[in-house]
Amino acid sequence: MEKIFKIKDKNEKVINLTKGRWAHITSPASPHAYMTNYLEEMKETIIYPDKIIKSMYDNSKANYYKYYKNKKQYLKVIVNYLNREGYVITSYFVKNIG
């Protein structure tokens, strides 16, 4: 599985973004295709999040949030944990944490 990045979050957990997920997120058919220009912000959100919230529906998932003043929105990065490592599922901008 080729990776775009492998980094540690603020809690020292390893988080990966695979080429396959990046292709899915940035596909022209994806509603989040604009994320092509925000790879560094995704990394920053994982390393220095304003907030990390565990999913209410799935204990293996967490949502990372970081506010970006220039967008006046939060970047949300959804991570799925598998075998002690996290994998980015998707990422997009939202107006509120929730």
Number of E-type strands: 6
Oligomerization state: single chain
- The level of helicity is 10-25%
Which stretches of 5+ consecutive residues score pLDDT under 50?
A: none
Overall shape: globular
Based on helices, strands and strand pairing, what is the structural class?
alpha+beta
N-to-C CA distance: 31 Å
Order of helices and strands: EEHHEEEE
Question: Which strand order does the major sheet show?
Answer: 1-2-6-5-4-3
Q: Write down the Rg.
A: 12 Å
- Tell me the strand percentage band: 35-45%
Arithmetic mean of pLDDT: 95
What composes the largest sheet?
A: 6 strands, mixed
Number of helices: 2
Write the layout of secondary structure elements.
Layout: E1 3-8, E2 14-18, H1 19-26, H2 39-47, E3 51-54, E4 61-68, E5 73-82, E6 85-94
Parallel strand pairs: 2-6
Antiparallel strand pairs: 1-2, 3-4, 4-5, 5-6
How would you explain this protein's 3D organization?
17% of the residues lie in helices and 44% in strands. The longest helix has 9 residues, at 39-47. A hairpin with a 6-residue loop joins strand 3 (51-54) and strand 4. The model has no long low-confidence stretch (mean pLDDT 95). The protein is of the alpha+beta class.
Structure at a glance:
It contains two helices and six strands.
Features:
98 residues; alpha+beta; six-stranded mixed sheet; 17% helix
